[in-house]
Design brief:
The protein has 393 residues and is an alpha/beta fold. It has helices at 32-40, 54-63, 91-97, 156-171, 202-224, 259-262, 287-295, 309-312, 373-392; strands spanning 7-13, 42-44, 47-48, 101-107, 125-129, 140-142, 145-148, 176-181, 231-237, 266-269, 277-279, 283-284, 322-326, 329-335, 338-341, 354-357. It folds into 2 domains: 7-320, Alkaline Phosphatase, subunit A (3-Layer(aba) Sandwich), CATH 3.40.720; 328-392, Arylsulfatase, C-terminal domain (2-Layer Sandwich), CATH 3.30.1120. 26% of the residues lie in helices and 19% in strands. The strands form 3 sheets. The protein has a 10-stranded mixed β-sheet with strand order 7-6-5-4-8-1-9-10-2-11, with helices on both faces. β6 (140-142) and β7 (145-148) form a beta hairpin. Belongs to the sulfatase family. Residues 6-295 form the Sulfatase N-terminal domain.
């Protein structure tokens, strides 16, 4: 008999580097709770953001479709005439229809028009901010109401974790989906005073250590209610680091689509479905909805992502190319050991195309397209065809 559908806790950091966790080699930032989560579950070492910046990546994470396909290729701020819009199916709406209680706690970043609101997209509860820390003053919202005009982001991690724990405690008797979307460690790196000066990595490291501490508190909340055995926990980031943070010495930073800008941490712990260990094959945040839909019996259709549940169980499973967008442009693709770039930012003439063997050359330093012209042409043809389907939609 298959196991019952799990509760789901999806935790997303903002601009966290894949190398900022102890388990991934950070020498300066201590993350004992996330390291434990990684050891208890499965760590994907070749996880990619769904896009080079926050809004399209978060759109991909929640819908399973690339943000450029949804008309969301760029980061959204206050008053933008864009957003998820009516009729867009999210994993939250699919899980709600499957009987889950749903909550979005923290940053939304997917439009502030009435039709874009989290409560219009499958979430039964919203407590957070419509924007990120680049908007000031930053209003704090409960449901549709502004409850604080100028939210102090230094206390954001603790505040949102408290709200997340309250939701878990309240809904523990029924299946639930919690989307906990932190504002940190995005600039301006304002650590909670209790963590200021604690790390060896400056204010950025202080914020990451604070984040780790409060993720640990949420995990203890789950354990305290006896929910560890019935809850799937995912931890990731919307994209790679920008000004500070560890990109594991890979080339590029946000918003570039070289691996230093789009690699993200991706940890999964789950009841009877996740085999502890590491998975080194490429995956994308657009795979999350397809995976949750399969595990939670909550069907979704017409997705760009793929079901990772066999890989969570430790089974080898190939994946078609992971596509990497810069704004509306499909700039790169990763498949197996190969990474093809056809555009740098908006420029197709900057020594493109480039092909890298990222297994042998993780820094993407040496173009081998002339040596592997067949690989480059095959990947280029597939990329151009996929780009046409996105433009058509």
């Amino acid at each position: 008999m298959p196991p019952a559908p799990p509760n789901v806790v999806l935790i997303v950091a903002d601009d966290l580097g894949p190398g900022d966790l102890g388990v991934s080699g950070s020498p300066a930032v201590r993350t004992p709770h996330l390291d434990t989560l990684a050891r208890q579950g499965r760590r994907f070492t070749a996880a990619y953001a769904a896009a080079a910046t926050d809004t399209p990546s978060r759109a991909g994470l929640l819908t399973g479709r690339y943000g450029a396909r949804l008309g969301l290729p760029h980061s959204l701020g206050r008053g933008a005439d864009a957003g998820l819009g009516p009729g867009t199916v999210t994993i939250a709406s699919a899980l709600r229809d499957a009987g889950y209680a749903t909550a979005c706690v923290g940053q939304w970043r997917l439009g502030d028009r009435p039709q874009d609101h989290p409560l219009r997209h499958g979430f039964g509860r919203f407590h957070g901010t419509m924007y990120g820390t680049d908007v000031s003053p930053l209003p704090l919202v409960e449901g549709h109401e502004v409850v604080r005009d100028d939210f102090d982001v230094s206390g954001g991690i603790a505040h949102f974790t408290t709200k997340a724990r309250e939701f878990v405690a309240e809904r523990r008797e029924q299946p639930f989906f919690l989307y906990l979307s932190y504002l940190d460690p995005h600039v301006p790196y304002r650590p909670d005073p209790a963590f200021a000066g604690r790390s060896a990595a400056g204010a950025y490291g202080d914020v990451v250590e604070c984040l780790d501490h409060h993720v640990g508190a949420l995990l203890r909340e789950l354990d305290g209610h006896g929910l560890r055995g019935s809850t799937l926990v995912i931890f990731t980031s919307d994209n790679g680091p920008r000004y500070e943070g560890a990109n594991q010495r890979r080339r590029g930073r946000k918003p570039e689509v070289y691996d230093g800008g789009v690699r993200v941490p991706f940890l999964v712990r789950g009841p009877g479905r996740v085999r502890p260990g590491a998975d080194h094959e490429p995956m994308s945040l657009v795979d999350v909805p397809a995976t949750l839909a399969a595990l939670c019996s909550a069907p979704m259709r017409d997705l760009d992502g793929y079901d990772l549940s066999p890989r969570l169980a430790g089974h080898a499973a190939g994946r078609p190319p992971v596509y990497l967008f810069f704004g509306p442009h499909l700039n790169a693709a990763r498949q197996g050991r190969w990474k093809l770039h056809v555009r740098f930012s908006t420029d197709r003439t900057a020594y493109m195309p480039q092909l890298f063997d990222v297994a042998a050359d993780p820094g993407e330093t040496c173009d081998v397209s002339s040596r592997h012209a067949d690989v480059a042409e095959r990947m280029r043809a597939g990329l151009e065809e996929f780009a046409r389907t996105v433009e058509a939609s």
